[in-house]
Amino acid sequence: MLDYVEGVIASTNMDELWQHHCDAMASYGFTRLLYGMASSRSRSSLGARDDFLILTNIVGDYMDTFVNDGLYLHAPMVRWATENSGSCSWSWIREHAEALTSKEREVVEFNTRHGLTAGLSISFAETGARGIAAIALIPDEGVPQSDVDAIWAVKGSEIEAMNHVLHLKILTLPYPNTRKPLTKRQREALEWVGEGKTTQDIGVIMGLTPATVEKHLRLARETLDVETTAQAVLKASLQNQIFRIEG
Q: Can you list the domains of the chain with their CATH numbers?
């Protein structure tokens, strides 16, 4: 546990952190992991797909269909995670089989075809009014749920604590560059907006003309795919792209 925590502390980017966590979970028998965090959910939606952070070591075409085709919207354990916090065995699916919707049954069948038949899910306490995150811990294909539950009975509290440490560290790191990142000038301009400075103020601070400051803010809005500068400040902050110390 100490080695794990020290490795988390030493991680300086998401890829390094994720590999460290995957190695740690594999030592307990969970060789396939899927972490997801949504920062703009509402009562009826998990928000825009582009606002998700997804980390996984599941290879092949599974993720293309599960995420990009929207199957996650009907996954039984995703529904459980949106309604609960803590840990849950995938035996929950079998125990609630009669209450599953037709679309949820389709996702279960899809997972079965891809060998994802046993596992555990951990839903983290909400970090904001619109934020939610969870992780699925999945063993090798063919491992029965009874074996997973036996591991959890002995090591569950330890594994759950490690995953919470992972989640807390993720909240401090910039999102991986799956999309075009902000430039240094764009980040700096947004940070000063977040501090309440006007365009004129920012121009003086950064040694730029107001028109150049406006250009950096416009490009930042385009990069983040938002309409207003206030939205850009919020989104960049949620992605940990601003108000951070350079490496």
A: 2-170 (3.30.450.80), 184-238 (1.10.10.10)
- Note whether 145 and 116 are within 8 A (CB): no
Contact 52, 170 (CB under 8 A): no
Q: What pLDDT, on the 0 to 100 scale, is given for residue 130?
A: 60
d(CA 108, CA 76): 8
26-41: b (≥16 Cβ within 10 Å) or e = eebbbbbbbbbbbbbb
Of residues 117, 114, 107, 131, the one with CA closest to residue 36: 131
Can you give the pTM of this predicted structure?
0.77
The pLDDT tens digits for 136-161 are 999 999 999 999 999 999 999 999 99
Q: What is the pLDDT of residues 94-108, one digit of tens each?
A: 999 999 999 999 999
Integer Rg of the chain from CA: 20
